[in-house]
Amino acid sequence: MDQIDVVRTPASWVVVGLDNGGTCNNATVLDATGQYLVDHLVENPSLVTDGPESAVEQLAEAFTGILALTSTPLTLVRAVGLDTPGPASADGVISSKGSTNFSQVSWHGFDIRGALEARIGLPVIYNNDANAAALYAHHRHFGASASEKSSVAAIVGTGLGGGVVEGGKVVGGAAGMAGELGHVQIPLHGVLEKDQGVPLCNCGFEGDVESIASLTGIKNNLLPYWLGKFPDHPLAQEPINKAAKLLRGYGEKEDPLALAVFGQQAKAIGKLFTIAANFTDPSAYFLGGGVVEAAPHFRQWFLNTVREHTQLRAEQQAAATFALVPDLDMAGARGAAVAALDRVLTAA
């Protein structure tokens, strides 16, 4: 969806949303009336590969930059929402083993939420990036009735992130690791071909959703198998990492190999949503990630395939909807802002 470059000044007190990524930070402002003050990406380099000190300083610059852009006085800011890629605790402490974006030893066990809070002197509310996107999708889709609805979101990227929203709030879990939908193991009947080996995830699990429905799953498991079936395919001449990234373009052209791979991904997500249907029975199933950024006919085909392979009872089919995560490039920052706004209102 094309974004209109609009900047508003606040009509009330505000919260700020900061989305931290491997390359860039994205910032937004949400006022107490529920209006976002920017309608486009506002980014600065995240510098996460330079280590925690540089990265936290860049987040602080993103914060001050978005206030300047929207003519928002610091005194109007009640809280800041922050999201980062996981895994991390509910309090924003990066996993002791690090992660894809936080691989340096200095990041292991680092309290990024606490560090930013100390740097800017305001309360910081943390979510992982998939939870933030799921929260935004939920509130954008349901609007005023968001607090009465539930949803499950699968965000397909390098891995598979997810989020479970109940009553308008993200389900965090005891350790903050609820909604790690990528590591739910699924029945593989009807997903894999008879001669296809059980896919292995980087987490060590066999046959979880991420081992199939992710860029990593394509590279490690799906594409090597299907290239064996299509040995003359142009992607067979490319390094596997490059071939995996090029595959979506072939899918948009309805290439048979690409549709076979993405069809398996959609079936795997359908199995995941079937489990969700019997576990939480959500009001909506959201799909986000790279597929949402694809050509409209391809992303609709993918969503339709997911829906076709989600086994719902007639009552559930009548009650639930399937939709794409909107404004994906801004969904993280906006969801982080929603979480901050909710925390402020709950405290009040």
Automatic annotation (TrEMBL):
Q: Which InterPro entries match?
A: ATPase_NBD (IPR043129), ROK (IPR000600), ROK_cs (IPR049874)
Q: Which Pfam families match?
A: ROK (PF00480)
> Which superkingdom does the taxonomy of this entry point to?
Bacteria
- The residues that cross the membrane are none
**Of which family is this protein a member?**
Belongs to the ROK (NagC/XylR) family.
UniProt protein name: ROK family protein
